[in-house]
Amino acid sequence: MAATTHVLGMDLANPVVVGSGLLTDQERNIRRLLISGAGAVVTKTIHPNPPTGLDERIVRLPTGMINSTTYSKRSVDHWMGILRGLARDRLPVIASLHADSPAELAELAARVEATGCRALELGISCLNEKDGLDDGPERVHAYTAATRAATRVPFSVKLASGEGLHARAFAAARAGAYAVTISDTLPAAAVHPETGDLRLGGVFGYSGPGIKPLVLASLWKLRSAGFPLPLLGSGGVQSGRDVHDYLRVGAVAAQVYTALHTDMSPTLVRIVAEAIRRENAGDGSEPVTATGRSEQVRS
User: Fold this and answer.
1) How far is C-alpha 165 from the geometric centre of its chain's CA atoms?
2) Fewer CB within a 10 Å sphere, N or C end of the chain?
3) What is the pLDDT of residues 128-168, one digit of tens each?
4) Quick check: 109 and 120 in contact, CB under 8 A?
5) Which residues pair with 120 in a beta bridge?
6) Taking Cα atoms as reference points, which of 212, 206, 155, 148 lies closest to residue 182?
7) 16: which strand partners?
8) Residues carrying an active site annotation
9) Which whole-number Å values give the CA distances from 202 to 109, 127, 185, 205, 211, in the listed order?
10) Is the peptide bond before 183 cis (omega within 30 degrees of 0)?
């Protein structure tokens, strides 16, 4: 890359960040993804009381996938050990966190800070968990403010694109977020061709190429509205071109996840290489919004 990418207080070798999910639920995979070229990796969401007894599955679609997964089933103590080891090696890892209340999230964030982890992402808008279905600015503000009061570690708040996004994003900014990630998964359903029932038994989170145009529009609208914080784009990244599309509408980095389910490391290596080639070829032009990327990064 022509220059490092500054994200959540870390200087990354490139703007390709592996998003939170099943693939980032193990230290072995996190290290493998970093070796494969990821600028940073977001852990599977750490939760002090993850749901139990759920039927967590994935349905692959031509344009992505629907999943009914929620949070890591590994204990907080287990994750604290992993994060300490990753921090000792100065690896660019972002811990994804959520909890059942703002106070619990604040306590968890403080514990993670003590491991030496350098950045967080608040996974507070997972629609596969009941509160995520009816997210609002008051809820976003409460979780963000509690986390901000408990830690000095830079963090992003991950929000779902859609109705009320501007109010939720600005609520996160007012409450002290350092950045916002858009988008979490969006509600979707698939019909079983034989039974006619909804696959997975209901409406769950959709990710993949189909949401990229929606996320691009959300980022562009936020930048046009003068949103003051750095933005990370997430949704449908399959190539270096997709990464640069997100940068052009004002994101400082792009998260990739769903595409990696096909062939994790080779796919990531290809996407990073394509993104670097585009940057070196001079396709790193300024965003199409009025605000330049250099103005978006909190000092």
Assistant:
1) 16
2) C
3) 565 445 689 999 999 999 999 999 999 999 999 988 999 99
4) yes
5) 95, 155
6) 212
7) 254
8) 126
9) 32, 12, 15, 10, 19
10) yes
